[in-house]
Amino acid sequence: MPEGDTVWQTARRLHTALAGKVLSRSDLRVPKFATADLTGRTVLDVTPRGKHLLTRIEGGLTLHSHLRMDGSWKVYANDERWRGGPAHQIRAILGTVDRTAVGYRLPVLELIRTVDESRAVGHLGPDLLGPDWDPDRALTNLLRDPARPLGEALLDQRNLAGIGNVYKSELCFLLRVTPWLPVGALPEELAARLPGLAKKLLEANRDRPIRSTTGHRHHDLFVYGRAPRPCLRCRTPVRAADQGDGSRERPTYWCPACQSGPAPAPGTGHRQNVPPEPRHRTSNPRPYS
């Protein structure tokens, strides 16, 4: 699931492949920009911003993309077969003399002026993996609506940028509170710890091919995707339920013994069939983008 660490890795791969090179191929397969031709222009850099990717191109242009749930960018040598999905799922192709970057299933793809990047990402809070990271501002943002459930507040990219559904569930487990606890009810010492813990998790995983929050070789995550298997800490069955985020319901995982605070009543929003624990990274402006 693309979260801040996944997007950071994607940006690094694209930057390594494209930055400083002249585009010899350009194909944007979205109606509004289908006639745009970037060939002959040099790629300046590829920068992550929360869950967004900004590919800056000579001439004051930025290709803004967002992966959301299913999107991905793949980089191939020019003699390599493309394996990211069927051709009809390709939304962008950027080619140089030796590498080709292909964007699959990109729900957001737009060509904007670089000076207008704030229109695409200006709503974001401090980036957990960015140079603008400010833990005090992130905490102030989170506590602005004290009645809001913690899980929803963590997903709101206007508060802090980079957390998705996996880290939301894992952070709440590590803090030993449920995702439905009102932010204002979070004990002061836990609230103070939260921004630093979030940054630590994402930084620890931005260089890993498989995301891990546990430090255990055989168990990558504490609760996300584990229902109804036993909690790694206390052996109580992990539970799963949907939690709204303002745009759609998202599966949320928690241990009813290890985590204190409110949770959905049995039968209300609980998931009977839950996905297996993810091993590999898969690879909104909405507040949750």
UniProtKB/TrEMBL annotation:
Residues 222-260 form the FPG-type domain. Residues 2-103 form the Formamidopyrimidine-DNA glycosylase catalytic domain. Keywords: DNA damage, DNA repair, DNA-binding, Glycosidase, Hydrolase, Lyase, Metal-binding, Multifunctional enzyme, Zinc, Zinc-finger. Residues 239-289 are annotated as: Disordered. InterPro entries: FPG_cat (IPR012319), FPG_N (IPR035937), H2TH_FPG (IPR015886), Nei2_N (IPR044090), Ribosomal_uS13-like_H2TH (IPR010979), Znf_DNA_glyclase/AP_lyase (IPR000214). SMART domains: Fapy_DNA_glyco (SM00898), H2TH (SM01232). Its EC number is 4.2.99.18. PANTHER family: ENDONUCLEASE 8. Belongs to the FPG family. This is DNA-(apurinic or apyrimidinic site) lyase. It comes from Streptomyces gottesmaniae.
